[in-house]
Design goal:
This protein is mainly alpha-helical and about 250 residues long. The chain has 6 helices and 4 strands. It folds into 2 domains: about 140 residues, Helix Hairpins; about 80 residues, no CATH class. Strands 2-1-4-3 form a 4-stranded mixed beta sheet. Helix 2 packs antiparallel against helix 3. The structure holds zinc ion (ZN). The site of zinc ion has 9 residues, from loops.
Amino acid sequence: MKAELEQLIALQKADISLRRIRAELESLPRRRAEIEKEFDQRAFEFKALETQRDEARAKRAQFEKEIAETRTHAEKAERDLMSSTNPKTYEAAIREADAAKKHISELETKILEQMEAAETAEKTIAEREPEIARMRAERDEQLKSLEERVSTDAEALAARREERERMLANLPPVLKSMYSRISARIPGGVAVAEARNNSCTACFITLRPQMMADVRRGEEVIVCDNCARILYYVPAEQQSRQATSTAPVS
Ligand SMILES: [Zn+2]
């Protein structure tokens, strides 16, 4: 029975390790979103500047298109003016040519304004570029190590799963089903607990002396009265070694 209890303890360790890896894998997408959000927040002002610059450029392009159209219009008005034969069309052509000139002058002012706005934004962008480049590099570095973590975790998960299946297959069927039943029922799935100093280390209840003696003998499967975990005993001389080997892997 002692050897079988050891198998159960090993299985328990494998399960804890599996759960830890799985929990970490599940937390990584959230971590990724946090990194990106943090960058977005820090880069917010910078992005606003880029938007300002891009909008100014877009407006300028729009005004330039409009100016070209107005020029075509003005040229047509000039031609009409030259070829007009009666006062009515002549006056209409003059009015149109004047209106077009005025519009062109307004558009030129607007274009200058947008050019200035774009330049001002661009200047500030250039000043802040080193800072943003550093932030971007920092974010990329964090994302890269996160991706590496995902792949090492995925590999570890696959390896541990295989290991766990092997362990489970080696257990006597009775223990196998007992273990599965208990770990499924208990929150956190820890089915095996050490009995130490006359108490269960999982639920902290004091164990009856007879029960403690039975656990110590390790000849049969003893289950905690309170939390229903399978109890095992580690002799004092092995405890320090056991403590190091059960320490959570980080
Ligand atoms: Zn207990």
